[in-house]
Specification:
This protein has one helix and 15 strands. The chain is α+β, with helices and mostly antiparallel strands. The strands form four sheets. Strands 1, 2, 3, 7, 9, 14 and 15 form a seven-stranded mixed beta sheet that branches. A four-stranded antiparallel beta sheet has the order 6-5-11-12, with no helix packed on it. It is elongated. The N terminus is likely disordered.
Length: 185
């Protein structure tokens, strides 16, 4: 004897849809998690050298009468690596291409700095100070130089910066001492 059962078509359809929906949700969650992990890895993994188009800096913070700290921020879409020492030039308020390069003397060892997106790195520049009041003079007998901005050469380009106090950069000679880039908060 054969037993025949009747299935409720509405019940089977609902269960099938519920199973299909659960599978679809699981696949979407897995795909979203994988995409988020890939994006995070792209933002944090060591990358190619930083380019000047992905770095920003807003000013040179005075930390003494003849020193400034400059912080650069990775504003690009991916992590990058800063290497070594920057170039430095004195400039007016016009194009950063119209500048007077300075000789940079590196201070301390240069290490690669990994910059995640939003990561920061800082350097310190030290100028030979101008002595005296008002007009000032150089102990070496050289003519003092004063400029309203400088160009920090980094990542194959230049970032033009002014001091955070609105003053100028005053120095004796054509040499500046610079620390290598260091990660900062």
């Amino acid at each position: 004897m054969r037993v025949v059962t009747r299935r409720d078509p509405g019940r089977v359809g609902f269960l099938g849809l519920a199973v299909a929906g659960a599978i679809s949700c699981a696949l979407l969650l897995a795909t979203g998690a994988a995409a988020a992990a890939q994006e995070t890895a792209g933002r944090q993994a060591p990358g190619a050298p930083c380019t000047s188009t992905q770095l920003i800096a807003d000013s040179a913070q005075r930390i003494g009468s003849h020193q400034v700290r400059i912080t650069v921020i990775n504003d690009g879409p991916r992590a990058c690596v800063l290497k070594g020492f920057p170039t430095v030039a004195l400039a007016g308020q016009g194009s950063p291409d119209r500048n007077t390069p300075l000789n940079v003397v590196g201070q301390g060892p240069a290490r690669d700095v990994q910059l995640v997106v939003g990561g920061r790195a800082a350097i310190r520049l030290t100028f030979t100070p101008v002595l005296g009041e008002a007009e000032g003079y150089c102990a070496s007998g050289a003519e003092p130089s004063v400029a309203p901005s400088l160009v920090l050469g980094v990542g194959g380009g230049g970032l033009q910066l002014a001091p955070d106090d609105g003053g100028g950069f005053a120095l004796c000679g054509t040499t500046v001492r610079a620390t290598a880039f260091r990660g900062s908060r």
